[in-house]
Amino acid sequence: MSFDLWVTGDTSGKLYAESYPSEWQDFLAENSSVLDTWVLEKFTSLVNEKKLPIESGTVLFLHLLGIDNTGHAQKPKSMY
Questions:
Q1: Which phi and psi (to 5°) does residue 52 adopt?
Q2: Per-residue confidence at 64, pLDDT binned at 50, 70, 90?
Q3: Is 70 in a helix, a strand, or coil?
Q4: DSSP helix/strand/coil, 71
Q5: Mean pLDDT for the chain?
Q6: Is the pLDDT of residue 4 over 70?
Q7: What b/e sequence results for 36-46 when a residue is b if at least 16 CB atoms lie within 10 Å of its CB, and e otherwise?
Q8: What is the residue-wise DSSP string for 4-67?
């Protein structure tokens, strides 16, 4: 997956984007939590290694595609 749309033209050096391989996106998988686990582990690692400093005014966007897909697949009124 490419985040070129978000980082193209950034001259401030303040934008950072990273993603798991697009092959991991299986919209028919019964359990896509591996995607969200990767995002949260990567985020934690970047913060702990001070590669992603959190400062006042910082805006974070973590796309949790696994839970997003589950919501679409199970529908809002399902028992899951």
A1: -135, 75
A2: confident
A3: helix
A4: helix
A5: 76
A6: no
A7: bebbeeeeeee
A8: HHHHTT--SS--------GGG--TT-S--HHHHHHHHHHHHHHHHTTSS---TT-------HHH
